[in-house]
Amino acid sequence: MTKTKYPLHPTRNNLHSNTKTVVIQLLNARLADGLDIALITKQAHWNMKGHNFIGVHKMMDDFRNEQNELNDKMAERIAAIGGTALGTTQEIAKNSSIAEYPTDIISVDDHLTALSERFAIYANALRKAIDEADEAGDADTSDLFTEVSRAMDQQLWFLEAHKPYPSKLHAK
Fold first, then answer.
1. Residue-range definition of the domain harbouring residue 74
2. CA distance linking residue 100 with residue 168, whole number of Å
3. In the chain, % of residues over pLDDT 90
4. How far apart are CA 96 and CA 100, in angstroms?
5. Which InterPro entries does UniProt cross-reference here (predicted)?
6. Using the 8-state DSSP alphabet, how is residue 162 labeled?
7. Phi-psi region of 137 (alpha: psi -120 to 50; beta: other; left: phi over 0)
8. Count of structural domains, the chain
9. Measuring CA to CA, which residue among 70, 63, 99 is closest to residue 87?
10. pLDDT in tens, 12-31
11. Residue 143 lies in a domain
12. Do the Cβ atoms of 52 and 166 come closer than 8 Å?
């Protein structure tokens, strides 16, 4: 993790400054991922076509609304403990751990696959951040990461549940 170029802002929050510094870096890293996920969710929403279109299209809207709320909570946590939330497109591009989203896909199934791959990266990074925030001494941020993790695990499950699944009834 690299040092942030932004100094801590004065706050009466009594977390140790080292804890704040570590946790702000964790939060900004996951915020970059979360904002990236929100953008690719909308990219898929706008451009998918095919089987189950309307259901998946509407699901993407629900996902995006929830993602916006969760991203806002992470950004506000950063500010609450004296940090600077980094949410510009430049920061997202520089700091997101999410693989670049293909812009040449159209089919619902291709979007479901591409989204599932990226949501899994984010969900796994969130689980790691839960432990890292706890080890840094910030149970509140760990709890926030747990909330975001639960939501992303559910969204990932919904994406994966839309993919064709082999039937045992037709297996020989």
1. 17-161
2. 35
3. 81
4. 9
5. DPS_DNA-bd (IPR002177), DPS_DNA-bd_CS (IPR023188), Ferritin-like (IPR012347), Ferritin-like_SF (IPR009078), Ferritin_DPS_dom (IPR008331)
6. T
7. left
8. 1
9. 70
10. 776 788 988 999 999 999 99
11. yes
12. no
